[in-house]
Amino acid sequence: MSSWKGRFRERLHPEALRFSSSLDVDKRLFGEDIEGSIAHVSMLAKQKILSSFEAKKIRNALRSVGNEIKKGKLKLDGFGTNGRFVAEDIHMAIENRLTQKVGAIGGKLHTARSRNDQVALDVRLYLRKEITGIVSSIRKLQKTFLSKADRQGYIVMPGYTHLQQAQPVLLAHHFLAYVEMLQRDAERFSDCLRRVQKSPLGAGALAGTPFPIDRNYTAKALGFEGIVENSIDAVADRDVHIEFLSASAITMMHLSRFAEELVLWSSSEWHFAEIGDAFTTGSSIMPQKKNPDMAELIRGKTGRVYGNLVALLTIMKGLPLAYNRDMQEDKEPLFDSSATLAGCLQICALMLQSVKFNKQRFTNDRQSDLLLATELADYLVRKGMPFRKAHAVVGEIVNVCVRKKVSFKELSLKEYQRHSELFTRDIWKILDLRASLQNKKSAGSTSPKEVAAALRRWKKSLRSKS
Amino acid sequence: MSSWKGRFRERLHPEALRFSSSLDVDKRLFGEDIEGSIAHVSMLAKQKILSSFEAKKIRNALRSVGNEIKKGKLKLDGFGTNGRFVAEDIHMAIENRLTQKVGAIGGKLHTARSRNDQVALDVRLYLRKEITGIVSSIRKLQKTFLSKADRQGYIVMPGYTHLQQAQPVLLAHHFLAYVEMLQRDAERFSDCLRRVQKSPLGAGALAGTPFPIDRNYTAKALGFEGIVENSIDAVADRDVHIEFLSASAITMMHLSRFAEELVLWSSSEWHFAEIGDAFTTGSSIMPQKKNPDMAELIRGKTGRVYGNLVALLTIMKGLPLAYNRDMQEDKEPLFDSSATLAGCLQICALMLQSVKFNKQRFTNDRQSDLLLATELADYLVRKGMPFRKAHAVVGEIVNVCVRKKVSFKELSLKEYQRHSELFTRDIWKILDLRASLQNKKSAGSTSPKEVAAALRRWKKSLRSKS
Amino acid sequence: MSSWKGRFRERLHPEALRFSSSLDVDKRLFGEDIEGSIAHVSMLAKQKILSSFEAKKIRNALRSVGNEIKKGKLKLDGFGTNGRFVAEDIHMAIENRLTQKVGAIGGKLHTARSRNDQVALDVRLYLRKEITGIVSSIRKLQKTFLSKADRQGYIVMPGYTHLQQAQPVLLAHHFLAYVEMLQRDAERFSDCLRRVQKSPLGAGALAGTPFPIDRNYTAKALGFEGIVENSIDAVADRDVHIEFLSASAITMMHLSRFAEELVLWSSSEWHFAEIGDAFTTGSSIMPQKKNPDMAELIRGKTGRVYGNLVALLTIMKGLPLAYNRDMQEDKEPLFDSSATLAGCLQICALMLQSVKFNKQRFTNDRQSDLLLATELADYLVRKGMPFRKAHAVVGEIVNVCVRKKVSFKELSLKEYQRHSELFTRDIWKILDLRASLQNKKSAGSTSPKEVAAALRRWKKSLRSKS
Amino acid sequence: MSSWKGRFRERLHPEALRFSSSLDVDKRLFGEDIEGSIAHVSMLAKQKILSSFEAKKIRNALRSVGNEIKKGKLKLDGFGTNGRFVAEDIHMAIENRLTQKVGAIGGKLHTARSRNDQVALDVRLYLRKEITGIVSSIRKLQKTFLSKADRQGYIVMPGYTHLQQAQPVLLAHHFLAYVEMLQRDAERFSDCLRRVQKSPLGAGALAGTPFPIDRNYTAKALGFEGIVENSIDAVADRDVHIEFLSASAITMMHLSRFAEELVLWSSSEWHFAEIGDAFTTGSSIMPQKKNPDMAELIRGKTGRVYGNLVALLTIMKGLPLAYNRDMQEDKEPLFDSSATLAGCLQICALMLQSVKFNKQRFTNDRQSDLLLATELADYLVRKGMPFRKAHAVVGEIVNVCVRKKVSFKELSLKEYQRHSELFTRDIWKILDLRASLQNKKSAGSTSPKEVAAALRRWKKSLRSKS
């Protein structure tokens, strides 16, 4: 039974039905739909719009429909017992089944409600659940970075700019950068959740309802922090949905960067990290391959989430108020992005746990000695040379090293003094990667002291969060 | 059985397997995969790399696997008989089943082939089929516009700019604009097809193969027009895929414009078109509603296809050669866009057939009389006034009409002459919507003669195309 | 003078210089750059890294350079006095000029600072200023909606779903929906600002600095609420930039919807709103045209802001830490989006003020009488009929009206009773648009009482905000 | 002077004028605008719509206006001599100046033309020029790859999949992959050009014109291959514009991949390529840095072009026919993408010329010896083992090598035979990177013979193209 046949002489064309049915997508909202309907019915009873007998009957039947779906006993293919397609979406599928169970009073469930506020409600219930799950997965990934930092964070690696070795940093410091990024990601989701946490139920089709409903009652019963005030706004907008997709896209951007780094570090050339067998794959043709597929997939799936964001932005652009059927297309981008992000966060944490780092990779590397160039320049500055000049002097020394294929340590003091008389015997002390780290003085720097403090701070802060 | 276990001591983590499996998506390529494998095996036999006995056995078994899948007899869930997940993608699922059937020689199917060229091949076979179908659907929609123009194309409607009534046009002329757009859409798909029609098979993992294969043989057997020459390019690029998505996005853009027009025309305010009951829906709450849902969905689904284009562009950005696992993510955007576009083209044609136009809507409308303002200006120009001045004069006359709430026809000649002495009695002849149409002289204009010629041309041109 | 010549034997190729120079774009950050440098120098002096004499000299010179730029006395084309291109960006242009003024000690400005933290700082200062301006423009537009509602909000118009007339609403109620949307937009910008309000200065190139700087001092001096803790994160991430673009895109989405409505309402067909002459344009060829160009441009410029969001998301995807030159491309999307959004908010408010609404448009419209169909159904429900049945009954009555071309009011009671015996004489009372409004009981509905309360609430709430 | 004041009582608001003016953007179309106007005037004279005297006068004045603009003598700021803003776009700026020169007959230029067909024409003339330039730049980059291949193409490098060393390839083979990609890019632009090469002039505002113009005459005079037939289509669509942006985005995608590779190859870790000093930059703080900025910028600018594509797709979505002011926003994405792409193609070619490759990098690398694993497997297959089994056997041998830290060559024959008795003395012959190359047999493989043939083919094919 469709919900609107009255004024129509002709049935919906079968192809149109197939084209417009959303059941296959929105059926995963069945739990939210039933939860919302139960709250609605309770309110209708409280307000004497339904009798408490009717309400109880409907509620029980709704719960039983929910169980049927959970157990796979109710086919959600949209076809009725007569073999005709009858339910264009999950809302009608549930209501049809309800009516089979309780008869005509099932029709009263829709009193003082429209599919417009109903679907707006269901998606907000869904988003709330998903955001909670995602924030918790973000916490887990942050904790994985921290525990990994605890175990191997003392490793010295080159910090890169332009993918050129720039200055030595602790692996823990590098990891802490991701912990910070993920923290802002979690904040963005929490900010979004604040806006999600308003109930649209009771907005009706768009104008409210003549029934003396209590919107705050259902809002509270469903765990919302308030109602979406304006009834048109409640059914017409999808901005928090886009905000969710945007927060997802930014988080994926962050994950894609770490994924890229894992891919680089796992290459023969970098030879810095080895992802565990359980998170790599081989090649069907090249027996030596050990491929960082999970990292590549995380990086690739970023495209999917970006695309979903673009999809919903495009859908909503220039739509007049209030509800338009275009907005049915809001669900797949949400469902797909949420599942993708949750999957990537989980795999990223699992994979990270499995990574082994090559401790000696950069400490034994002649090339990496050039990481100390900034130290040399700062040395000259401390002895009174303006920074720009010190930079030029060290640049010339680098040239000598590159030409002669030697490291800073292999140059003689005399050679240094040829470039500036400020060089004295104490330069040997600074020509050491770990000395460079310890030398750092600024807050938030890669100095072991700062890094240790940051790790302590983060562990304490995350301990309280599940 | 995974295709690469040799050097691994640990199995893929179950979550990693789930995360990376593409079987659920790429299983719809089973037909292409088997078609490609059969051609490959025939070539291997021709080149004496397999014996003709082996080849025949494998070919027969492949056909039988194909039939099993078609009939739903082979579960494509990736789980083996031992309940363990064994097939990460359709290619392994088929090969596993093959090996069950023919034993160890099944392993020879993969001789001189890699999953990289195999999957590149499958997708090209898929794209070829889809493009052919889409072009044919475009033809159908063009023909629907033409047949609709035949029946109701004589209706005069306002051509709009800025959604303001601008100049009268024939409905047929308006439809012909879409026929032209769709023609360019079809051309873009055909251009793309030319680039799709090259076989990547034989590129191996990326470097070619030491087996004396005949790439042109398989290319020809599979109906390609040639091979993708360079073996790295063959497995590394996805540009024709993006081109397909771009052609789809542009076509959706065109459809979204017509959909928007149908939505507008169906509004109470426009009252110009009524979409058939079979392509409209009602409201669950407002019994009077007759909603242009199909048009709205077409407009909304544009977002989905735009998003898919962005997804693949994002995925491919900055990927080093050759194959990267990110590229596994190319399939869903393709499958989804193709299905969406095909569905929209079909529904658009069916819906258009059902539309009834309100013939008298604009011919009896005082407001629409202002459509003749350009005629009035041109009238003055023909009598020698520079265009810019004529424009200003008529602008003032429009002001008078708006202020007095009268139409051009209701003004007296004297009033006209108050604005310019060039006005004489012959202005009454031009103050008629159809006269305005007939007045048009330029090629491709909305004059009935030009429109009739265009219709004839198009009907002839499309007749030859299925 | 370039900032890094030391180790290079060859100059940058002139085409490479032109290609990579950002001066033309980032020169608008000159104010932020000087502000940041002054704070940095003061801190260096406080920490005894520079002498107070040096610091004072540099600060004064920086202020003087700032004045030169403000007054247009310093050419910012990147060319030095010798006609050679010397400044690739605004930072070097300022430092070069500084050095001309104060000689070699100018080189000390860069002590304990890198271009990486410097540019990150400048953009945050810029974003803070822009967000403040945008939030204030959002407030202005909200207030314009409210003052417009005060004056013409009592007008009854159809609320639309699917662009079909659905239920009567007050124009003020419709406006309030936008006030709510804009409120969430402002919130999103404020949430973003919280994350912007951290100083990256002192992060150095990526690892911190060996100089004993005081990061919190500069943060406080520049009005930040804290520092970006991790030095790598400080120079490597651009997530708050993307968040800004996303908040901008969502706001543009909202504006595009209102713009679309203005375009529709201004059409001859809708004839509901007339935008003031000062915000419409005519046609170069059609003298009668009065085009809603500003609304169209707002709608169109949505594309530009969406594009900017995609641009920066794409840029950042998959970039390894820390700074990469790709990130230079972050500025134009920010500058362009901010200017576009600010312009659109301003024009939207000005244009809205100029709109005149046609009060009688829908109250005298036979078609709009169907808006009362939901009232009829609710009437039957109140008399005990289940909603779904009431809906079907009214649907049939609508059919009668459409077929007979009469309105609900023009049907006789007998005819009503033919469809249900529940109809009695009291139906005439509900067949009135304003009665329908007054009938609404739910919180946030379009009932005049609810709307008046919402207006009061909003006016009070916005009064306190500049 | 605005072009449409007649019916307006109030001037455009100064902020609206500023907001809507496109002069600052479209002024770079002045050449196209004048070219089009001259052709239009000549046609008007030929058709006796203007006298030949008038036409000559206007043509001469137009040429003179063009020269004024070229020489910077005509300020294009939109302000008239009275200090009032008078020209909202380049078309009015030129016409205003024309009228200053020739008086009232200047107004006749706009006879039988509208700004709608005029601007459509100008952009097509622009696109034609840009496409021609871009295709030529693509040719240059292809030739640079070829000449680089001539000089260093014999270098053996690892072909990568998943960024893991996969199989040895010739550098020339790798370059040829890009030559192929660029070839398809050029084809896409040429296909687009075919659709650009139709004249919209004469479509008028949207309906054609009552003047007896000759559209084919102007089309031919301007070098078009025909006319855009339907007058509505001619002014309403922007699909070829989007197609141009899409072709640009795909080409940028290709360039971003090569840019990524240059960034990787230039890293200390890869140490495979050194970009010339003239195309790298240093760091303001780290004297040792030599950064691949140009490659990074090319990669980053990909985002900008993707964004432009999204912008125009968004703009055009759901716009009713014909012209809407939103479409004014089509120009910046086109101008910006074209300039960006042209710049990137040029810099990419120049930079590539400057790259020096480290010939011995991979031939002396123990790790790279594993590249021969596929050879080993194929060896076993040739001796009769099914491929899947051979793969597993070699996988185990790889494990031994990794565990013992030895290369394939360092294992004894005995050890090989422990894994399979098929191994005999002849394996030493295949354990050589160059032997592996020579071993390849398939068309388009990396075998030196195939690569040499491909180079010859390409050089011949490109010789004929400027």
Question: Can you put this structure into words, describing what you see?
Answer:
4 copies of one chain form a homotetramer. Chain A has 3 domains: 11-111, Fumarase/aspartase (N-terminal domain) (Fumarase C, Chain B, domain 1, Orthogonal Bundle), CATH 1.10.275; 116-151 and 168-357, Fumarase C, Chain A, domain 2 (Up-down Bundle); 366-431, Orthogonal Bundle (Ribonucleotide Reductase Protein R1, domain 1), CATH 1.10.40.30. The first copy, chain A, contains 18 helices and 4 strands. In chain A, the strands form 2 sheets. In chain A, strands 1-2 form a two-stranded antiparallel ribbon. A two-stranded antiparallel ribbon of chain A has the order 3-4. In chain A, a hairpin with a 2-residue loop joins strand 1 (156-161) and strand 2. By secondary structure, chain A is mostly helical. Chain A has helices at 14-20, 23-26, 30-46, 52-70, 90-102, 115-152, 171-196, 215-221, 231-236, 239-266, 293-316, 331-354, 373-382, 387-404, 413-419, 427-430, 433-439, 448-463; strands at 156-161, 164-170, 273-274, 356-357. Helices cover 59% and strands 4% of the residues of chain A. In chain A, 64% of the residues are buried. In chain A, helix 10 runs antiparallel to helix 11 (293-316) and helix 11 (293-316) packs antiparallel against helix 12 (331-354). Chains A and C meet through strand 1, strand 2, helix 7, helix 9 and helix 10 of A and strand 1, strand 2, helix 7, helix 9 and helix 10 of C.
